[in-house]
Design a protein that fits this description.
The chain is 36% helix and 19% strand. The chain is built from eight helices and nine strands. Strand 5, helix 6 and strand 6 form a beta-alpha-beta unit. It starts with a strand and ends in a 13-residue tail after the last strand. Bound molecules: adenosine monophosphate (AMP). The site of adenosine monophosphate (AMP) has 17 residues, from helix 2 and strand 5.
Protein backbone atom coordinates (compact mmCIF):
# COMPACT_ATOMS: atom_id res chain seq x y z
CA UNK A 1 0.00 0.00 0.00
CA UNK A 2 1.40 3.37 -1.03
CA UNK A 3 0.73 6.49 1.02
CA UNK A 4 1.16 9.89 -0.62
CA UNK A 5 0.86 13.43 0.72
CA UNK A 6 1.10 15.53 -2.44
CA UNK A 7 -0.93 15.61 -5.64
CA UNK A 8 2.26 15.20 -7.72
CA UNK A 9 3.31 12.04 -5.86
CA UNK A 10 -0.22 10.67 -6.04
CA UNK A 11 -0.44 11.25 -9.79
CA UNK A 12 2.97 9.64 -10.35
CA UNK A 13 1.78 6.57 -8.41
CA UNK A 14 -1.45 6.31 -10.40
CA UNK A 15 0.08 6.89 -13.85
CA UNK A 16 1.49 3.36 -14.43
CA UNK A 17 -1.66 1.79 -13.02
CA UNK A 18 -3.79 3.82 -15.40
CA UNK A 19 -1.48 2.94 -18.29
CA UNK A 20 -2.14 -0.75 -17.64
CA UNK A 21 -5.79 -0.04 -18.42
CA UNK A 22 -7.33 -0.91 -15.05
CA UNK A 23 -10.10 1.22 -13.65
CA UNK A 24 -9.28 3.52 -10.75
CA UNK A 25 -11.69 4.08 -7.84
CA UNK A 26 -11.66 6.83 -5.23
CA UNK A 27 -13.20 6.62 -1.76
CA UNK A 28 -13.03 10.06 -0.09
CA UNK A 29 -13.04 10.02 3.73
CA UNK A 30 -12.18 12.20 6.71
CA UNK A 31 -10.52 9.28 8.51
CA UNK A 32 -11.38 7.77 11.93
CA UNK A 33 -12.40 4.85 9.78
CA UNK A 34 -15.16 2.43 10.77
CA UNK A 35 -17.15 -0.35 9.11
CA UNK A 36 -19.16 2.20 7.09
CA UNK A 37 -15.98 3.45 5.39
CA UNK A 38 -14.67 -0.07 4.89
CA UNK A 39 -17.91 -1.09 3.18
CA UNK A 40 -17.27 1.69 0.66
CA UNK A 41 -13.76 0.34 0.09
CA UNK A 42 -15.22 -3.11 -0.61
CA UNK A 43 -17.71 -1.67 -3.10
CA UNK A 44 -14.81 0.14 -4.79
CA UNK A 45 -12.76 -3.09 -4.92
CA UNK A 46 -15.50 -4.77 -6.92
CA UNK A 47 -15.57 -1.94 -9.44
CA UNK A 48 -11.94 -1.06 -10.05
CA UNK A 49 -8.45 -2.55 -10.30
CA UNK A 50 -6.91 0.19 -8.17
CA UNK A 51 -8.59 1.57 -5.08
CA UNK A 52 -7.48 4.95 -3.76
CA UNK A 53 -8.73 6.16 -0.39
CA UNK A 54 -8.27 9.79 0.62
CA UNK A 55 -8.09 10.84 4.26
CA UNK A 56 -8.55 14.55 4.80
CA UNK A 57 -10.41 16.33 7.56
CA UNK A 58 -11.69 19.06 5.29
CA UNK A 59 -11.57 22.41 7.12
CA UNK A 60 -13.80 24.06 4.50
CA UNK A 61 -16.83 21.97 5.42
CA UNK A 62 -16.80 22.87 9.13
CA UNK A 63 -18.52 26.05 10.25
CA UNK A 64 -17.41 28.34 13.07
CA UNK A 65 -18.15 26.64 16.37
CA UNK A 66 -18.30 23.17 14.80
CA UNK A 67 -16.04 20.28 15.77
CA UNK A 68 -13.13 20.66 13.30
CA UNK A 69 -10.39 20.57 15.95
CA UNK A 70 -12.20 17.95 18.05
CA UNK A 71 -12.96 15.72 15.03
CA UNK A 72 -11.48 12.26 15.79
CA UNK A 73 -8.15 11.57 14.06
CA UNK A 74 -6.08 8.37 14.17
CA UNK A 75 -3.99 8.05 11.03
CA UNK A 76 -1.88 5.07 12.15
CA UNK A 77 -4.95 3.00 12.92
CA UNK A 78 -6.66 4.09 9.69
CA UNK A 79 -3.65 3.08 7.61
CA UNK A 80 -3.48 -0.33 9.32
CA UNK A 81 -7.17 -0.94 8.54
CA UNK A 82 -6.78 0.11 4.92
CA UNK A 83 -3.74 -2.14 4.53
CA UNK A 84 -5.78 -5.09 5.84
CA UNK A 85 -8.43 -4.29 3.22
CA UNK A 86 -5.69 -4.39 0.55
CA UNK A 87 -6.20 -0.80 -0.52
CA UNK A 88 -3.63 0.17 -3.17
CA UNK A 89 -3.08 3.89 -2.66
CA UNK A 90 -3.88 6.25 0.22
CA UNK A 91 -3.86 10.00 -0.31
CA UNK A 92 -3.33 11.99 2.87
CA UNK A 93 -2.93 15.60 1.74
CA UNK A 94 -1.01 17.90 4.05
CA UNK A 95 -3.55 19.86 6.03
CA UNK A 96 -2.57 23.36 4.87
CA UNK A 97 -1.00 22.54 1.53
CA UNK A 98 -4.16 21.18 -0.04
CA UNK A 99 -6.31 24.25 0.62
CA UNK A 100 -3.73 27.06 0.77
CA UNK A 101 -4.40 29.95 -1.58
CA UNK A 102 -7.61 28.43 -2.90
CA UNK A 103 -9.77 31.02 -4.68
CA UNK A 104 -12.32 28.70 -6.27
CA UNK A 105 -15.52 27.54 -4.64
CA UNK A 106 -17.82 24.94 -6.16
CA UNK A 107 -21.43 25.75 -5.31
CA UNK A 108 -24.35 23.52 -6.30
CA UNK A 109 -27.46 25.69 -6.22
CA UNK A 110 -30.83 24.52 -4.98
CA UNK A 111 -29.90 21.22 -3.36
CA UNK A 112 -27.66 22.77 -0.73
CA UNK A 113 -29.84 25.28 1.14
CA UNK A 114 -32.12 23.03 3.17
CA UNK A 115 -31.67 20.04 5.54
CA UNK A 116 -27.93 19.94 6.38
CA UNK A 117 -27.41 23.13 4.38
CA UNK A 118 -29.86 25.10 6.54
CA UNK A 119 -28.22 24.00 9.77
CA UNK A 120 -24.66 24.21 8.45
CA UNK A 121 -24.41 27.25 6.13
CA UNK A 122 -21.54 26.87 3.65
CA UNK A 123 -21.02 23.21 4.56
CA UNK A 124 -21.78 21.82 1.12
CA UNK A 125 -19.66 24.42 -0.68
CA UNK A 126 -16.77 23.11 1.42
CA UNK A 127 -17.67 19.54 0.51
CA UNK A 128 -18.06 20.07 -3.24
CA UNK A 129 -14.94 22.23 -3.50
CA UNK A 130 -12.79 19.56 -1.85
CA UNK A 131 -14.50 16.62 -3.56
CA UNK A 132 -13.93 18.49 -6.84
CA UNK A 133 -10.23 18.83 -5.99
CA UNK A 134 -9.96 15.17 -5.02
CA UNK A 135 -11.65 14.09 -8.26
CA UNK A 136 -9.23 16.34 -10.16
CA UNK A 137 -6.20 14.99 -8.31
CA UNK A 138 -7.09 11.29 -8.68
CA UNK A 139 -9.13 11.42 -11.92
CA UNK A 140 -10.87 8.19 -10.98
CA UNK A 141 -13.22 6.22 -13.21
CA UNK A 142 -15.53 5.67 -10.25
CA UNK A 143 -15.97 7.28 -6.83
CA UNK A 144 -17.93 5.74 -3.97
CA UNK A 145 -19.98 7.73 -1.45
CA UNK A 146 -22.13 6.45 1.41
CA UNK A 147 -25.87 6.90 1.69
CA UNK A 148 -25.14 7.85 5.32
CA UNK A 149 -24.59 11.37 3.95
CA UNK A 150 -27.56 11.13 1.62
CA UNK A 151 -27.85 14.82 0.73
CA UNK A 152 -24.11 14.95 0.03
CA UNK A 153 -24.43 11.99 -2.36
CA UNK A 154 -27.22 13.68 -4.33
CA UNK A 155 -25.24 16.95 -4.47
CA UNK A 156 -22.02 15.27 -5.62
CA UNK A 157 -23.93 13.46 -8.38
CA UNK A 158 -25.32 16.78 -9.53
CA UNK A 159 -21.91 18.48 -9.48
CA UNK A 160 -20.41 15.67 -11.56
CA UNK A 161 -23.25 15.90 -14.05
CA UNK A 162 -23.22 19.70 -14.29
CA UNK A 163 -19.44 19.92 -14.69
CA UNK A 164 -19.16 16.88 -17.02
CA UNK A 165 -16.54 15.39 -14.74
CA UNK A 166 -16.94 11.98 -16.35
CA UNK A 167 -16.70 9.93 -13.17
CA UNK A 168 -19.24 7.33 -12.17
CA UNK A 169 -20.67 8.09 -8.72
CA UNK A 170 -21.72 5.00 -6.80
CA UNK A 171 -23.89 5.24 -3.67
CA UNK A 172 -23.26 2.56 -1.05
CA UNK A 173 -25.84 1.51 1.58
CA UNK A 174 -25.71 2.96 5.10
CA UNK A 175 -23.93 0.62 7.54
CA UNK A 176 -25.35 0.32 11.08
CA UNK A 177 -24.03 -0.92 14.39
CA UNK A 178 -25.72 -4.16 15.55
CA UNK A 179 -28.21 -2.12 17.63
CA UNK A 180 -29.19 0.03 14.67
CA UNK A 181 -27.14 3.18 15.32
CA UNK A 182 -25.68 4.50 12.06
CA UNK A 183 -21.91 3.94 12.11
CA UNK A 184 -20.20 7.34 12.36
CA UNK A 185 -16.79 8.69 13.36
CA UNK A 186 -18.65 11.06 15.69
CA UNK A 187 -20.09 8.13 17.70
CA UNK A 188 -16.68 8.08 19.44
CA UNK A 189 -17.74 11.28 21.24
CA UNK A 190 -20.83 9.68 22.83
CA UNK A 191 -20.90 8.72 26.51
CA UNK A 192 -22.63 5.39 27.29
CA UNK A 193 -25.83 7.29 28.22
CA UNK A 194 -25.70 9.38 25.05
CA UNK A 195 -25.04 6.26 23.01
CA UNK A 196 -28.33 4.84 24.33
CA UNK A 197 -30.21 8.08 23.66
CA UNK A 198 -28.80 8.16 20.12
CA UNK A 199 -30.73 4.99 19.26
CA UNK A 200 -33.85 7.17 19.07
CA UNK A 201 -32.80 8.31 15.58
CA UNK A 202 -32.70 4.89 13.93
CA UNK A 203 -35.73 3.74 15.92
CA UNK A 204 -37.82 6.70 14.77
CA UNK A 205 -36.76 6.07 11.16
CA UNK A 206 -37.58 2.36 11.44
CA UNK A 207 -40.99 3.22 12.90
CA UNK A 208 -41.66 5.60 9.99
CA UNK A 209 -40.59 2.92 7.52
CA UNK A 210 -42.80 0.29 9.16
CA UNK A 211 -45.80 2.65 9.21
CA UNK A 212 -45.17 3.93 5.67
CA UNK A 213 -48.26 3.81 3.51
CA UNK A 214 -47.33 6.64 1.17
CA UNK A 215 -48.44 9.58 3.33
CA UNK A 216 -45.42 11.87 3.60
CA UNK A 217 -47.03 14.29 6.05
CA UNK A 218 -47.92 11.47 8.39
CA UNK A 219 -44.41 10.02 8.24
CA UNK A 220 -42.88 13.44 8.94
CA UNK A 221 -45.25 13.93 11.89
CA UNK A 222 -44.41 10.52 13.30
CA UNK A 223 -40.67 11.19 13.07
CA UNK A 224 -40.95 14.62 14.69
CA UNK A 225 -43.19 13.53 17.54
CA UNK A 226 -40.96 10.54 18.34
CA UNK A 227 -37.76 12.55 18.26
CA UNK A 228 -39.18 15.50 20.17
CA UNK A 229 -40.25 13.13 22.94
CA UNK A 230 -37.05 11.08 23.03
CA UNK A 231 -34.97 11.74 26.18
CA UNK A 232 -31.49 13.18 25.73
CA UNK A 233 -32.15 14.29 22.13
CA UNK A 234 -32.46 17.78 20.67
CA UNK A 235 -34.08 17.47 17.26
CA UNK A 236 -32.60 19.61 14.49
CA UNK A 237 -34.75 18.45 11.57
CA UNK A 238 -36.83 15.50 10.42
CA UNK A 239 -37.93 15.56 6.78
CA UNK A 240 -39.44 13.28 4.16
CA UNK A 241 -38.15 14.09 0.69
CA UNK A 242 -38.07 12.93 -2.89
CA UNK A 243 -35.03 10.61 -3.11
CA UNK A 244 -33.66 12.23 -6.28
CA UNK A 245 -34.54 15.93 -5.97
CA UNK A 246 -34.55 16.17 -2.14
CA UNK A 247 -37.75 18.25 -2.41
CA UNK A 248 -39.88 17.89 0.74
CA UNK A 249 -42.92 15.72 -0.04
CA UNK A 250 -46.46 16.58 0.96
CA UNK A 251 -49.56 14.43 1.15
CA UNK A 252 -49.75 10.98 -0.37
CA UNK A 253 -46.94 10.13 -2.79
CA UNK A 254 -46.77 7.41 -5.40
CA UNK A 255 -43.15 6.33 -5.51
CA UNK A 256 -40.60 5.91 -2.78
CA UNK A 257 -39.39 8.59 -0.39
CA UNK A 258 -36.41 9.20 1.85
CA UNK A 259 -36.65 10.21 5.50
CA UNK A 260 -33.72 12.24 6.86
CA UNK A 261 -33.11 13.30 10.45
CA UNK A 262 -30.49 15.28 12.38
CA UNK A 263 -30.30 15.70 16.13
CA UNK A 264 -27.93 16.71 18.88
CA UNK A 265 -27.17 14.11 21.52
CA UNK A 266 -25.33 16.14 24.16
CA UNK A 267 -22.84 18.18 22.13
CA UNK A 268 -22.62 15.64 19.32
CA UNK A 269 -24.64 16.22 16.17
CA UNK A 270 -25.79 13.00 14.47
CA UNK A 271 -27.54 12.39 11.16
CA UNK A 272 -29.38 9.34 9.85
CA UNK A 273 -31.75 8.46 7.02
CA UNK A 274 -33.78 5.60 5.58
CA UNK A 275 -35.66 4.76 2.40
CA UNK A 276 -39.45 4.59 2.68
CA UNK A 277 -40.75 2.12 0.12
CA UNK A 278 -44.28 2.11 -1.19
CA UNK A 279 -45.57 -1.42 -1.72
CA UNK A 280 -44.99 -2.30 -5.35
CA UNK A 281 -42.80 0.80 -5.95
CA UNK A 282 -39.60 0.63 -7.95
CA UNK A 283 -36.67 -0.22 -5.72
CA UNK A 284 -35.47 1.57 -3.78
CA UNK A 285 -35.63 5.15 -2.59
CA UNK A 286 -31.94 5.57 -3.38
CA UNK A 287 -30.05 8.49 -4.82
CA UNK A 288 -30.11 8.35 -8.61
CA UNK A 289 -29.23 10.72 -11.42
P1 LIG B 1 -16.72 10.84 6.36
O1 LIG B 1 -15.38 10.29 6.74
O2 LIG B 1 -17.68 10.91 7.49
O3 LIG B 1 -16.60 12.13 5.58
O4 LIG B 1 -17.35 9.81 5.36
C1 LIG B 1 -16.66 9.39 4.23
C2 LIG B 1 -17.58 8.57 3.36
O5 LIG B 1 -18.01 7.43 4.11
C3 LIG B 1 -18.85 9.33 2.95
O6 LIG B 1 -19.19 8.98 1.61
C4 LIG B 1 -19.86 8.81 3.93
O7 LIG B 1 -21.19 8.87 3.45
C5 LIG B 1 -19.42 7.37 4.09
N1 LIG B 1 -19.93 6.82 5.36
C6 LIG B 1 -19.76 7.29 6.61
N2 LIG B 1 -20.44 6.55 7.51
C7 LIG B 1 -21.08 5.60 6.79
C8 LIG B 1 -21.97 4.53 7.13
N3 LIG B 1 -22.35 4.31 8.38
N4 LIG B 1 -22.44 3.75 6.13
C9 LIG B 1 -22.07 3.98 4.84
N5 LIG B 1 -21.24 4.96 4.46
C10 LIG B 1 -20.75 5.76 5.41
Amino acid sequence: MEVHATVDALRAALRPRRAQGGRIALVPTMGALHEGHLSLVRVAMRRAATVTVSIFVNPLQFGAGEDFTAYPRDLERDLARLKRERVDVVFVPEADGFTRGLRTTVHVAGLTGHLEGASRPGHFDGVTTIVGKLLGAVQPDVAVFGEKDYQQLVIVRRMVRDLDLGVEIVGAPLVREPDGLAASSRNAHLSPDERRSALALSRALSAAREAWGGDAGRARGLLRSRLQKAPGIRLDYAEVVDPSTLEPLEGVVQGSARALVAAFVGRTRLIDNMGLESPGAEPSGRARD
